[in-house]
Design goal:
By secondary structure, this protein is α/β, with parallel strands linked by helices. The protein has two domains: 172 residues, P-loop containing nucleotide triphosphate hydrolases (Rossmann fold, 3-Layer(aba) Sandwich); 66 residues, no CATH class. The protein contains seven helices and nine strands, in the order E-E-E-H-E-E-H-H-H-E-H-E-H-E-E-H. The strands form two sheets. It has a six-stranded mixed beta sheet with strand order 5-6-7-3-8-9, with helices on both faces. A three-stranded antiparallel beta sheet has the order 2-1-4, covered by helices on one side. Helix 3 crosses helix 4 and helix 6 crosses helix 7. The protein is globular. Bound molecules: adenosine-5'-triphosphate.
């Protein structure tokens, strides 16, 4: 009997930052954005990053995504892993249908047409948009557009998802539904998620661990595991208690620096 062993997805999603520093510009115009950030994210872990405005959260995600290079330190991903990145704006191609948008990464990977069609259908099913494949982005709500963006990111078939305020522009009800969706997909696919948010309740609702960055230049000043059983409700007393603690720490930090 032959057996095929496939590496579990959870074995490939680790992210490790070692003393990562980022300075934009030079000389008198130098802007230190990150200062000595070390962080180990375990495969399958959901980590939320919070911190004052401008403390370097997006910079950190961009560095992990490989869109920019650190000025110092090192970022380790497992070999061949290219993280998927999602922003507050879904950044869809307006001239393409929903199917066409989700198909883009599959085309870039050279998947044959029939395989692309099956994969797009599966991904749209995953984000509950099976009946909307022929629509164009302008025909969808904001929440639906973010679902398309999520399906397109999942089409990269990456174990590491980097999310920069992905639900920041959505109303509370839509955000709540998308939290449930993301949690389900994260569990099913054993994804490693690094999620930036200003919303401490959202962090407490989603994270295994919350990391607090100092005001610029960003350093990790505090972190806490979120030991609240899943599924969670954003309005549960346990989530509210964690959010209140994060808010207190954030207030203290912002108060210290005035930003
Ligand atoms: N390309 C760049 N050139 C110069 N400075 C930059 C550049 N990108 C970011 N910065 C600066 O680096 C600092 C960190 O920016 P970053 O966008 O990472 O912060 P953030 O925590 O994501 O902010 P916010 O919470 O407001 O989205 C800010 O002071 C910003 O102005």
């Amino acid at each position: 009997m032959t057996s095929t062993t496939t590496t579990p997805r959870s074995a490939t999603g680790s992210v490790a930052l070692h003393g990562v520093t980022k300075v934009y510009g030079r000389g008198a115009n130098a802007v230190p954005a990150l200062d000595g950030v070390s962080l180990d994210v375990a495969p399958g872990e959901f980590v939320c990053l919070v911190g004052a405005s401008g403390c370097g959260k997006s910079t950190l995600l961009n560095l992990v995504a490989g869109l920019d290079r650190p000025s110092g330190g090192r970022i380790d991903l497992e070999e061949g892993v290219e993280p998927g990145l999602m922003f507050q704006e879904p950044a869809l191609f307006p001239w393409l249908t929903v199917e066409g948008n989700v198909e883009v990464p599959l085309k870039l990977r050279g998947l044959p047409r029939a395989a692309r069609r099956d994969r797009v259908a599966e991904l749209l099913g995953t984000v509950h948009l099976a009946d909307f494949g022929r629509k164009r982005p302008h025909e969808l709500s904001g929440g639906m557009r973010q679902r398309v963006a999520l399906a397109r990111t999942l089409a990269l078939d990456t174990p590491v998802l980097l999310m920069d305020e992905p639900f920041g522009a959505l109303d509370a009800m839509t955000r709540d539904i998308l939290h449930d969706e993301l949690e389900r997909i994260w569990t099913q696919r054993q994804l490693t998620v690094l999620f930036v948010t200003h919303n401490v309740r959202e962090a407490a609702r989603l994270a295994d661990r919350i990391i607090l960055l100092s005001s610029r230049p960003g350093r990790i000043i505090w972190s806490t595991p979120v030991d609240v059983p899943r599924p969670r409700r954003i309005d549960s007393p346990e989530v509210a208690a964690i959010a209140a603690e994060v808010t207190d720490r954030l207030r203290t930090e912002v108060g210290r620096h005035g930003r």
